[in-house]
Design goal:
This protein has 194 residues and is mostly beta strands. The chain has one domain: Coagulation Factor XIII, Chain A, domain 1, CATH 2.70.50. Helices cover 11% and strands 48% of the residues. A 5-stranded antiparallel sheet has the order 1-11-10-13-14, with no helix packed on it. It is globular.
Amino acid sequence: MRIPLLWLLACAAAVPLRAQNIFVVVEDGVPRAVKAISDDHRPEIDDHGQLHKSQGLRYSLRKAVIYGLGVIDISAFKVEFTNSLSGVGTLQMHIYGRLKANTALRRCFMVMRFETESGKSVDFEPLPDLEANKEVVYDQVANLPLHQSPGSGHYDLMFFSDGLELLTSRMPPMYVAQQRQKTRDYFAQRAAAH
């Protein structure tokens, strides 16, 4: 599967990744939360309870109130990059490893935020639904077209389920515990209000 590298056009709307995020696509000038990524690599958004594929081509990360309910173990998960010999043209990205969640998760996807000398970009990839405590092996190679050499930089990986970013095993344990409690409290308050 070929994964397009998409430039963040709304850089001012992007938030630091030290907090929970939602991934949005701009459709008809309106940012809409992405709930899933289709098998043909298109963002899906909720439209009155039904998912449909977005036609938007601009993406961003926005601050969210809470994380999703699950925690995903990505301790054995890796991303490797190989540049073409000329340094311009294609960047090969190999994403592989094992994923395991503490609860069943559906509509899973991954967002990769790149920040390099040549600019900021974001890419996304669908992931399989995860069953509670069942390990899934993931292995994907993608060739990303480049208009210039990326130079040096870094990337961040974020994992989502049904539109909410998930806590991961690479986050500090105290932070994970605090955020899980914050999420439980949020849903308890919502349930009590109804």
